[in-house]
Model the fold of this input.
Amino acid sequence: MEQTFVMIKPDGVQHGLVGTIIQRFENKRLRLVRAELRQLTVEQAKEHYRDLATKPFFNDLIAFITSGEVMAMVWEGPHAIKAARSLIGATNPLESPTGTIRGDFALELDSNIIHGSDSLESAEREIQLFFPNLHPAKSVS
Done:
């Protein structure tokens, strides 16, 4: 089993997409391990997006992700990271096919509805950042 971190961003929460998005993950037969609706602090947001700190859009990203509540979640299943990324779609919603979350619900790169871990290392880091008492399951090869 493998665990991954997924976060519905403020635009997804504000547009009432939490239930629809959760249903897509459940339909993929992933299991919801933890979920929490929360407001991120600037410090939490900066730590979450620390790999993007040198990018010119970093401050706008932090302002956006702290602008409203997010739904932080941990999902589990075989190849959970790859399965979640497939459900989510490309970072740029205009490059995401219909049938993906971003392809169906987002139009702009800077408000693209959802975040998902892109590797086992980032999943472990993000799960510990948001759910420090949860011990992530490792991938079984």
